[in-house]
Amino acid sequence: xxxxxxxSIYNEVSEELNLEVLLIEQLVEFYYKKIRFLLxxxxxxxxxxxxxxxxxxxxxxxxxxxxxxxxxxxDHPVETFKDYHKKxxxxxxxxxxxxxxxxxxxxxxxxxxxxxxxxxxxxxxKSQTDSGGxx
Length: 135
Prior knowledge:
The protein is mainly alpha-helical.
């Protein structure tokens, strides 16, 4: 497959839909800007992007980065306004990471509960069929 330049794709789509090239370009830029925002803001541990797939946050990275950010915040000087601003940004990112960690743990707990219920139900069904066949 030969890759196409984005400008040629914009032209093809604009001709096909009978819209301006600038409008198509702005729509695509807006869409990818929104995707980048969702991926960087750590709102959810899993993001589904239609036609591109699922993107998940790596749990190990989250667990590894949280202590790193805590140490950075503790060691960060606040002698100037610029330093204070940087420390505030680090604190905001740490809060986001902790929030995502909580969501990851909730998801793990939900999966564990689901598996346990499935296992119990399967064993219950098995024991009923076993005891029912002995009569």
